[in-house]
Amino acid sequence: MSIIDLMFQETDPDKIRQEAEANYKEYVNPFALRMLKNASLDIIEDKREGASVWDISGKKYIDCVTGAGIFNVGRRNPEVVEVLKKALDKYDMGSWISLFRERGLLAKKLAQITPGDLKFSLFCCGGGEAIEVAIKLARAHTDRTEILCMENGYHGVTGFALPATGRDVYKTPFLPLVPGYRHIPFNTLQAAEAAVNENTAAILLEPIQGEGGIIPADDDYLRGLRRLCDEKNILLIFDEVQTGFGRTGKMFAAEHSGVAPDIMVLAKSLSGGLYPLSCAVFTEEISDFLTAHPFIIINSFGGTSLACLVALAAIEFIEKNNLPRNAAERGAQFKTGLQALQQKYPELIIDIRGKGLMLGVEFPEESIGPRMAYQLKKNGVISIYTFNNPRIIRIMPSLVITKEEVQTVLEAFDHSLAEIRNQEARFKR
Amino acid sequence: MADSEEIMEALLDFQNQCNENKRLRRMQRDWTKLLHYVATDTGDVFTMRVVSGETTEVKKGKEGVPDVIVETDSETLCDMFWGDINPTQKYLKGEIKVKASQEDVMRIDAITAVIWPEV
Amino acid sequence: MKDTKTNAEASTIKEDALKDFAKYVNPQKARILKNAGLDIIEGKREGARVWDMAGREYIDCISSAGCFNVGRRNPDVVAALKAALDEFDQGVFVFCHKPQADLSKKLAEITPGELRYTMFGSGGGEINDFAIKLARGFTLKTEIISTINAYHGHTGFSLSAIGREEYKKPFYPLIPGFKQVPYNDLKAMEEAMTPDTAAVIIEPVQGEGGIHPADDDYLRGLRRLCDQHEAVLIFDEIQTGFGRTGKMFCAEHSGVVPDIMTLGKSLGGGVYPITAAVYREELGDFLVTNPFIHLSTFGGSDLGCIVGLATIEILIRHRLPEHAALMGERFHAGFDRLIPKYPDLLLETRRKGLMMGLQFTNPSIGPRMTYQLAQNGVLALYTGNDPTVMRLMPPLVIKPQEVDRVLEALDKSMAAIMAQGGVEKY
Prior knowledge:
heterotrimer; A: alpha/beta; Aspartate Aminotransferase, domain 2; 2 domains; four-stranded mixed beta sheet; B: alpha+beta; Nonspecific Lipid-transfer Protein, Chain A; five-stranded mixed beta sheet; 5 helices
């Protein structure tokens, strides 16, 4: 019997867990497993549906991590799954050099739904890879080298993306990196104005900093950056990897401010949580460089036939079910509920912020983030702290989450906060 | 409750374990930190200095500006230094307080994991 | 959906597709494909073959540089992915997943020597970036040595290691601390290495560089040099892995075990992007102290890992590495007949298993051969870093009759070029 058959036939949850943990420890990363176990995040995902995921033991959780925004259309969305299955009856990845009808269609769709003059798409696999494309295009298009990026920003861990990530722990062991990146404080227009010079190629930022602690950019700040970029012929790049596809209550976070970037980077929910796909969407002017050098950035896995079909299906689902609106409404419900909890636990909750269903709850000290994640999991909710700022717990559920499920999450927060309050009291004694 | 001599004995043993473990020394060779351990019940404070992965100094008393402060009761401190407990679990349950970056919290756990993989 | 459209239907769809592609993807790419006779919209795919929408059949010798080792749209891989879709999605990347754990174990079993732990990615460049980062993080050194004409991908670390200026120039400055030395030249490597060398990264057969297999002694020498300098030896087996060269991994030919091996392409069975870096236990220590320092949302997803497991099983069950060796020899015999027939065009052929390169006498022949071969029912491309070399990398499931058909198409295509007056001698 084949290993695949065995995999699908084994139903004893204890056996599955045992084997998974043994192999993970021996062959993936023993310490990562230990940390997951310590944090009680040693979930082995079994059934997935809507906003929920079931551990192999049968316990149900509401997934408020969703891989930082991969599952906007819900976990294992049946409609998108159907499209992928159907596609598999006819397609494979496709040869990278071939002309894909579905790649053209997806690029056209993206040109339609993204703001401003964004028009051409270059497809990749991972979010970081698409950030690389954006930065390379900026350098090549402007003939300048310097990239302005934000303190505490997060853009990925590959070569051109890593230096833009605004936190040293990701970078120090790998120095030296690509030169020419400068970090400025987020949401401070003056800092940007002071930092630009005749060698500035681009300003790169997330419209809402995700790993940095769910910090939305002010609309005026973004408008100011747009003006500054226009004045100095600098490209404005929005990393909408986490904020895109309805997450913030609009299809793209850029729409809140009405500012259209010159390059927008998309990944995560672009492909419905089923297939690796990312892309950089850019203006016609910027595309000239790639017209002159059509094969200067190539890959075999970016924008495969299957990926493009899945993405088209995912976007259709988002539009058909108006997920941006649900994100806005459920987000508002979350905010109201969390504000009530802030009243109840004023010593624990410092701030609640975010847009739509990209929310962050800030605690007064670093240890509370991990401890809250631990408690929330006990209460049936999966959430983790933001990578660059452990004081913030993130709430990023699927956009299909229902009113009742939001209520369940809020109750879990209440119970968890009560427990943390007890712990703190015990300690102060 | 453990008195300061018991804690010191445990801490010195911990220092030996750390320094004698070649793999750990190599892994931690980019880690230079000053740590304070505070016994909340007895009020004792201990200082530990790690330079490039080598624990160069442990002593009773508070010295310098710490990168990491670990606070818990004296028994738990001893248990931790003897390798009898999983400190991260205690940390997540709010029984040990660590004032440090999450990276340093992870490093401290990594030390335990390497010396006492079964804990 | 029908696989074959009427000619009129097919050409309308093709026109529309070309238009969208030109308008929203890249106009010049569309134009080049059209000119090269490669403006094919792939319809049915099976084994070593692919059909365009009008039903015209081609043998795929491009295989996306080695993505389709188990064949186009392999039914067993498709079945595994479909079954997986009944239960899984990508999964949340930070968690422990059984498919990921199982695939890691499988990779530890089939890769040579003590290679053991696996980090997953979704792109080839991404995983080479990780390998180079791991080398720097583990050794606390900075210098990375690669080879001239090497190809490792387009992300920052990989691009810095690429040995071709054209890919890099518009994007300068790149990462400091990289240098390139001539391939297959042990003395050059010996001279380049210093106490600060963190890693040597190398393809055991240079792919984009023009299908140049490394000598066994060269690889053994590299192993020795890396041991001497406490540097990490990285084999980029993204194109050469999974049976392509007649062994499961190309490293097996020389018996040299690297410290990190990067894999991609065919690991995804031709249906799903997945890449992996397999490394020795000792290097794993760096990721004990920094377990989440390198993250990949899409890497090691449940679906990708199940596809990887299915692909490896098919490779082993059907003994595809051995089959690749046999088919490679059949090609070789054919090449030996072609060289004396077209001395003005064909200089030599280089080969390891079914990773084959035809060395032409002149760079203009590559593009013209691509066009001619497409007319004769074979898809093939010249290598990215050297247009004088035509690369042939058919799916490993290619049948003897299909090998003969490719050889026949080569013969006809070269005859056509000679009939057009041949080429100017360089």
